[in-house]
Amino acid sequence: MKPSIPNPRNFCGGNFQDWLEVNLTDACNARCSWCVERKGWHPRTRASWQKICEAALDSGKTNIILLGGEPTLHPDFSKIVKRLHNNGRRPWVTTNGSRLTPGWVKANMEGVFGVNISIHHHDLSENFKITGLTLNGSSLRKAISELHRMGAAVRFNCNCIKGHIDSAPRIRAYIAWVKRMGGDKIRFAELKGDDDGFVDLAAVLDHKYGLNDNPFRDGCNSDAVVDGMLVNFRQMCGLQTRMRPCPNNPMQAAKKVLYYDGKMYGGWQVKEEKESVAKKRVIADVLVDVARGKLSVAKAETEMKQLMKKERAKVRAEYPDTTGAGCQY
User: Fold this and answer.
1) Structural domain boundaries, residue 177
2) Contact assessment for residue 115 and residue 92, using Cβ atoms and an 8 Å cutoff
3) Please, are residues 66 and 257 in contact by the beta-carbon 8 Å criterion?
4) What's this model's pTM, rounded to 2 decimal places?
5) How confident is the model at residue 28 (pLDDT cuts 50, 70, 90)?
6) Is residue 227 a part of any domain in this protein?
7) How far apart are CA 87 and CA 282, in angstroms?
8) Residue 319 to residues 89, 226, 304, 315, 326: CA-CA distances in angstroms?
């Protein structure tokens, strides 16, 4: 089967290769219903903050983005930021904003190159319904001023959710709010793996700003200026949502992720895939023997069960809580 080739501007198409994503912690104080990481794989062990920094520095990447969970909940967050900064790296943070007071920022974020604040509605009472977090707009605005004083760029991340930010007027209202808050840029993103809440940005915005119906082929990541604000749009392809057709035999560029156990993995880990790969391999081998007349169908079924039991044991010994990595960009 002819492979489907992603757009080179896409994460999976080879863009953003000088970035390292770090799953700094699985701790989170929000309750976002669509959260991929809540149902994702989590290492059983935790490395010291020094080991995490060593692994990040050894990657050779310039831009190191601290993710989670909620990365600001890591007890040694400020030490990690300083170590990366002092070694010539650009630490970035994606946060739900719950700890961003002027005092906390001043005490813990010196050296941060950029901050992405994930707030999914310009009405903070609506954002509370989505995330369960109580945010103070005035305090957050002052925290952003403090980040700017430090030289850090501030982007707001907004997942577009049906019933919330789901139309062109609501998108423009969000943009106006971010301007008042002092943000530098906004990312509007479609939801991953949530059919009920999915908002098709291409349809909502009449296919402007590079938005399209085939993000895998035509680009899932586009920049524009809307109402005087720098805006990035992040669309989901059929590998991430059932609301779009899934590409056949997709090719994807490898991108490693550092987890809080201090180890590098081949992408964001999920629970199902390694076992699925092992299963396909076993089935293929047994079917070949059946086709060659070496096994009867009944014996093949018995042997397949035995082999699968052994393969599961191998997978779980190497990856205790996981079975592989999928498209998590």
Assistant:
1) 19-265
2) yes
3) no
4) 0.83
5) very high
6) yes
7) 47
8) 30, 45, 22, 6, 15
